[in-house]
# Entry
Amino acid sequence: MEKKMCMALFSGSIDKLTGAGVILSGAAVDDMEIDVYVLLMGARAFKKENADTLKEMAEFPNAKDEFMASLKRLNVRPWLEFFREAKELTNVKIHICGLAGKMWGGEKVEDFVDIVDDICGISEYITAAQEADVHLFI
Amino acid sequence: MSEELNDLKVDEVIDARGTACPGPLLAAKKAIAGLESGGIMEVLTADEGSKRDIPKWAKKKGHEYLGDLEKDGYYRMFLKKK
# Structure
């Protein structure tokens, strides 16, 4: 039985999503079973029209140019690619919190990027957190 | 040891020198899936974090880590698939 990871992804900024993506990769390489629960600000980033054009930094917004230049220099893939690749490597399910989706105008799973699996309620997240070997809030 | 590694017949070489962590590990994970049991893979990386991760990951997954060679500022890491 593979170990389970539960990630609460509250953040929707490019810096935190990149960090979340790197952690997700590590878990995927370890064949973990992963549930990502996309909460309030995260849901905005997963909207189809936003995912590729995110501009916001949550931390050190003044250092954005340096951050973006470093991503390019180090050949770090765009944040969404980490999520996409993790799904190819292991069992990753991406759930959008229903309230969060609605806040950003997303009612249905089709309103979000293609790697999103479903829209869920908060109790499912709590249950997954209780059952997980690793639980992260980002 | 290093001569043995140098002479090893390798089934697949993964050049991950263009990527930082977790790129080399992701590349290794993907590539080893395509090898047959007992197949030898060589991963090239200049990333210190990946240099530490790859042997630990291999051991955890039951693959044999055969060792590494340092060359011109990068590492050649050798794994045998379980």
Observations:
- The mean pLDDT of chain B is 95.
- The beta strands of chain B are 12-15, 40-45, 64-71, 74-80.
- The first strand of chain B starts at residue 12 and ends at 15.
